[in-house]
């Protein structure tokens, strides 16, 4: 387990610290670092849990057209095509991960606050949206790198930190609807700014981890990407997130068309998050028994089943519930396995850029391509076809994983 050290610029340790046994200081600092990571994840996903379901409603409330709302809501994916790579490079180049978290959180908070007076001015909303999403795109790649350092590559420790993001998202989704019923959807920018202020405040709980104060030599990472097993896993991850884009964009609409009420739809979404939370606590033995590379393949195979079940369900509650329970594996375990592989395959000084590539290739290119493909299938074939298409994408991702597995038969993580 990595311990923590203070930067030299902060001065020598105080007398009380100096007199404490070294192992006691390491354990104390490990716990402090993990506490800071948990608070950050909770605060950040509170923001995500308000933005994802309610920001489009705000845009409609202020008078933007459906076309304009579609453009604004596509901006996060467009920004993810390049912004995470920039932030990851800057974090590895400077070594100032926490400072960059603070700067980007402050930028995002100010942009969200600016949306309030912007109203229905589409041009201003787009500019502020670009600023907000550009700044927010720094948060997860940098924090994931910090979290992996703080976990000491222990999947159980990492999962128990990461699960606090699921808690935050669940709290926001369940609590914000009634709140907005009372105060109105027009208040959404204020809530986003408030929650981003909480994200900013949480950065003062972050502490540098030993090994995080690295030599500031930017080692190239593309040589690693040319290795067959690494390229294959990135391809499979791209296709897995492509498939999930259909879920995030159209699952609620699909359920609505099958006659589910909005409150029931919310409960079905919450069921997936609860399953994800449970898996974050329970998955450590799976990693110890099978390893991350094998689990990526298993999650891909179960992803094929999940999306096929939605496509054939015709709204059957039993099949829908089963598909949501599989979210524990197709997102929770898959995400953790990818994080383990990234830390295994990339050097410490490359971690922020590795996380940025994950965000860009997966959620930038993958999310955009998957959303467009699902939209075309929904309109030109059928709503069910969007999920059958997702199953086919996931199957292609499993094949990419299988090719990578054959190129590296030894368990790599």
The secondary-structure element order is HHHHHHHHHHHHHHHHHH
Quantity of strands, as a count: 0
The proportion of strand residues reads under 5%
What class, by secondary structure content? Answer: mainly alpha
Low-confidence stretches: 1-28, 210-217, 409-413
Summarize the biggest pleated sheet: none
Instruction: Quote the average pLDDT.
Output: 82
Radius of gyration: 21 Å
Supply the number of helical segments: 18
Gap from first CA to last CA: 16 Å
Percentage of residues in helical conformation: over 70%
Q: What labels would you give this structure?
A:
0% strand, disordered N terminus, 413 residues, mainly alpha, disordered C terminus
Q: Mind explaining what this structure looks like?
A:
The protein is mostly helical and 413 residues long. Helices cover 81% and strands 0% of the residues. The model is unreliable at 1-28, 210-217 and 409-413 (pLDDT under 50).
Write the layout of secondary structure elements.
Elements: H1 15-19, H2 22-62, H3 66-79, H4 83-94, H5 97-118, H6 122-136, H7 139-151, H8 155-183, H9 188-202, H10 222-225, H11 228-257, H12 262-282, H13 284-290, H14 292-313, H15 317-325, H16 327-345, H17 351-380, H18 383-407
